[in-house]
Amino acid sequence: MINYLLESFEQINKIEANMTSKKPHILLHVCCGACSCFPLVYLIDRFDITIFFSNSNIYPYEEFNKRLDALKQYVFEIENKFNKKINIIVDQYNYEEFKKDLIPYKNEKEMGKRCDLCIKKRMINLFKYAKTYEIPYVSTVMSVSKNKNSDYINTLGKELEEEYPSEFIIFDFKKNNGQKFGSLLAEKYKIYRQNYCGCEFSKR
Ligand code: SF4
């Protein structure tokens, strides 16, 4: 079994060894404020971070905005604490269009085919945006959740890397108590934490 924590260290060490004075620029897909808590603290000293909020899987639109507001609230706290700037790019929201591909798998359990496709669609958006704006590194915070398969996310990231110019950075943010630490941070900063993943099928 692949140890993604070690793989991640090795990958980041290589990037740092070849680094000039500027920190490497990463486009980081973030799904909500709570899931960003640990990854942002972990990455802020290593990368120049631009967040990509591409989450048309979230239903309804009010919930999308609630999660975005929670993310902005947390980013504000982190920017002040670390005295660093983090930009947030908000991708177009179109749940009805996004949902069409998920409907055939609506009765699947979480972490099944519906979720694989949902993650893939958002990751493709991430790679496309990075290509347009020539951002050399990409990744996602989704591996922090115990309901997301890190193996699937990292394998997919490496596959997409073959089709797009950006390098995917491997992470398994739930390792080393990442999820627990994230929960403590969310509690400390009073960050909204939702009780369902996102789509209407996960709400049931
Ligand atoms: S449960 Fe979450 S990951 Fe799975 S399809 Fe719904 S929104 Fe996407």
Describe the structure.
It is a single chain. The chain has 204 residues and is α/β, with parallel strands linked by helices. Helix content is 51%, strand content 10%. The protein has helices spanning 4-17, 33-43, 61-82, 95-102, 113-132, 150-163, 178-188, 200-203, and strands at 25-29, 48-53, 87-90, 137-140, 167-168. The chain has a 5-stranded parallel β-sheet with strand order 3-2-1-4-5. Helix 2 packs across helix 7 (178-188). The mean pLDDT is 95. It binds iron/sulfur cluster. Residues 57, 102, 110, 114-115, 118, 197-199, 201-202 line the site of iron/sulfur cluster (SF4).
Question: What is the secondary structure topology, with strand pairs?
Answer:
Blueprint: H1 4-17, E1 25-29, H2 33-43, E2 48-53, H3 61-82, E3 87-90, H4 95-102, H5 113-132, E4 137-140, H6 150-163, E5 167-168, H7 178-188, H8 200-203
Parallel strand pairs: 1-2, 1-4, 2-3, 4-5
Helix pairs in contact: 2-3, 2-7, 5-6
Bound molecules: iron/sulfur cluster.
Iron/sulfur cluster (SF4) binds next to helix 5 and helix 8.
Features:
204 residues, alpha/beta, Rossmann fold, five-stranded parallel sheet, binds iron/sulfur cluster
